[in-house]
Acidic leucine-rich nuclear phosphoprotein 32 family member
Amino acid sequence: MDMKKRIHLELRNRTPSDVKELVLDNCRSNEGKIEGLTDEFEELEFLSTINVGLTTVAHLPKLNKLKKLELSDNRISGGLEVLAEKCPNLTHLNLSGNKIKDLSTIEPLKELGTLKSLDLFNCEVTNLNEYRDNVFKLLPQLTYLDGYDKDDKEAPDSDAEVYAEGLDDDEEDEDDEEDYDEDAAPGDEEEEEGEEDEEENEEEEEDDLSGEVGIRVNEMCETMNCNKILNMYAALSKNTQCEIS
């Protein structure tokens, strides 16, 4: 998908200043430029541009509030010095799968005083002798390199995926919107519940009525039996009187 079109879709009728997270993975960049991304995204905190064909970060706009930048699986080989100017408050930077071959390429990152997590997995620089020790010496502000600290303790998920939760929430919101019946008018559910209650009440009334009818039939039967007995008694009495006379 075209980068500019993807950004337009990601906006979802919002203004750029309302966006805090932007995912542009697998889009097509134009000569290493992220078309449509401007400094109007002043509140942006998370930007993901995985596998978009970037060869440089020089065309990034100024994003003062950006904290996490995903640049993995591109063709970046240098020019990282601009990040201190463009994204001065970065805390997480993922450069895995790029063409970074030596420590001098990442040396400019020492100007990012807030950077605490750097990922260079699958870059040639990781094959250098004492790679981890040298990177931690070069960038003393780092806490995690390739997901592990100086003592080889793995970074907690909450730290490594600090902004992923926000994206999951958006997906859940979309799922909720899909489950919602747009054709149903407000109050339809209440009307259906009311109809169900009325049906239950009618059934209860029918049961009560059936019970009352049964009782009345029994009473009539008992009355009819009594009348029959009285008639028999009257007939016997009459016959007896006739015999006596």
